[in-house]
Amino acid sequence: QKNICLTGWRIKVVDGNTAICVEGKRKDMKDLSWHSNAIVERIAHNQVRTSSGSVYVLQGNIDSASMRKEGFPYRFVKRFTYGFSKKWKEYVEEFLEARRR
Hints:
The chain contains three helices and six strands, in the order E-E-E-E-E-E-H-H-H. By secondary structure, it is of the alpha+beta class. It has a six-stranded mixed β-sheet with strand order 3-2-1-6-5-4. The radius of gyration is 13 Å and the shape is globular. The N and C termini lie far apart (38 Å).
């Protein structure tokens, strides 16, 4: 299974605030807008695996402007500026918890 490459990527909340996915434009599909299944694992700062087993390669920095427009807190977006850190799960948990309140 080949990796799926996304540019202009950002994080989206899925499954009623229980998980996140990534969304962006797919290089191999003429920049079609695309979003992944729920993210379950970080492989590298710019590579994540989803619940379906697909690996997404995130090119460039996060699209922070569009995330801010969608109401994501600045602190959360900043933590993902350069991709997924080792503590990404903690950050996501904390963020989703706050949204569920």
